[in-house]
Amino acid sequence: MRAVLVGPPGAGKGTQAQILATELSIPKVSTGDIFRANVSGGTELGKKAKEYMDRGDLVPDEVTNAMVKDRLAQEDAAEGFLLDGFPRNVPQAETLKTMLADLGSKLDAVLELRVDEEEVVKRLSGRRSCPECGRVYHVEYDAPRTAGRCDEDGTELYQREDDREETIRHRLKVYRDQTAPLVEFYEGEGLLATIAATGPVAEVSERAMAAIREKASS
Prior knowledge:
alpha/beta, five-stranded parallel β-sheet, two-stranded antiparallel ribbon, 9 helices, 7 strands, 13% strand
């Protein structure tokens, strides 16, 4: 199984990617993991990426594409993989198609996790983090026993900058402008399956597995 997971921030992609990859017995391949591995390993691509990251700039597509190609050529990805965080735009999707053709394979399915934007804002803006132990709470879904204090060590919780409502709405706009066109691209390729990413995690996972298997067998 060779699949791609797409969806807006807050859709639960990270959680579902791990569950689905385990269920399908394939590696989860995320750009974040690839960047960290290349940077910590001191590869040439990692050194290039670090130059941009240290300046606070986005890593260019050509560097990202090369890292992904190297990762997909590794032995554990020979029988399949689940991509999370790549491709982020249509040019990257076209590059991925070429990459896989060079490796003698192609995608089986692209799963879109769909969630209402107001739900995303509610999910993310309600998060509160402990600066001491790193535990993350939610003011509504997973509140600490004492408001504003960590259950583990009593440290005052804080809201990360990227969990502030104005930041979330900006991230959603970036997603709409840059990543959402992937949905149309993959629909045109006949690979797209869309599910509602709301409700209990286990229910979303069941929907996701059913959608991926149906698309891959069609």
